[in-house]
Amino acid sequence: MNQETQQKMEVSDKVEKENSIGDEHEDENQDLVEDLLFGDIEFESKEFKIERLSHSQKKLQQYHQHLQKHTDKEFLKDKWNQRKKRVNKRLDGLSNDEKFQERCKRKEEIEQERLNMIKGYESGIPLIIDNSFEQYMTFREIRSLAIQISQTVFAQRKNKNPFQVNVCNASQQLKDCMNTQIFKKLPFNVYEQDILEIERFKGKEANMIYLSPDSENELETVDPSGNTIYIVGGLIDRTVKKWASYDRANSMNIKSAKLPINQYLSDLTRRALNIDTVTVMMGLAIHLNFDWKTTTLTVLGNRKINEDLKEEQKQIY
């Protein structure tokens, strides 16, 4: 047997071995596929669980990320620089003495605003925001309610008759929306209990008035002494749900009333107002001796008033 013939035989043996190994692998793969299809194989692997967030949890996460961005140092620095530019633009053209007087005046205003908020928290007119309508609201509307609560507390800075803001029936979802640095600095009370289950409000149904746009009674005056407790429904509904706050008041045997402003509003305007707008109007009405026409025009402006009141204003000015 010559050398060439021997080399050819070795090569053919090697090819046969490789083919046999390939066939074995194919058989093993085929067996594995069949086991997977018919469930005869058991894997010894660690159990793992993929946590899927619900739609509302995703929205809440995005909301907190948005707030985190707005509390970032660089963002706050940019906002401070923008504010500084606006102040310098306002003071541009004034002498040094006039600038000093403007700054002193602004410091006094800031201090007065701080005192108003403290006064409202300690001894203001009791205002309850009733969060018992959450089953009617989406997460977006709950988040809007949280924003309106913060705006209501902020609105007491310039209110000469500030309100003491109390949030009742606070759910975990609402508290999650309020779990930010902004809310932690605001002076207001949060309760998980229903209104009549809170110790300080027990047995005071006779002194309570539930504000509802569907009520037949009108709120002619506002008691600045703090003896009357005013309740506002925390219902943020994009499509208006009528009678919700009115039925809630009746179920609790509490008097209901609406602000006497419907005669001044346009027919196209929604009768339901934001919570912060309601408190601003009530506080201003006390200051104006309950002149609701002037109050409506001052707070809502020409955008929402009816044509008769617009013509009257044109004649005056």
UniProtKB/TrEMBL annotation:
Residues 10-23 have a biased composition (Basic and acidic residues). Gene3D superfamilies: 3.40.1280.30. It comes from Tetrahymena thermophila (strain SB210). It comes from the Eukaryota. The lineage of its organism: Eukaryota, Sar, Alveolata, Ciliophora, Intramacronucleata. InterPro entries: MT_TRM10-typ (IPR028564), MT_TRM10-typ_sf (IPR038459), tRNA_m1G_MeTrfase_euk (IPR007356). This is tRNA (guanine(9)-N(1))-methyltransferase. GO terms for biological process: tRNA N1-guanine methylation. Residues 1-31 are annotated as: Disordered. Residues 113-307 form the SAM-dependent MTase TRM10-type domain. Keywords: Methyltransferase, S-adenosyl-L-methionine, Transferase. The keyword S-adenosyl-L-methionine applies. It catalyses: guanosine(9) in tRNA + S-adenosyl-L-methionine = N(1)-methylguanosine(9) in tRNA + S-adenosyl-L-homocysteine + H(+). One of its GO terms (molecular function) is tRNA binding. One of its GO terms (cellular component) is nucleus. Its EC number is 2.1.1.221. The keyword Calcium does not apply.
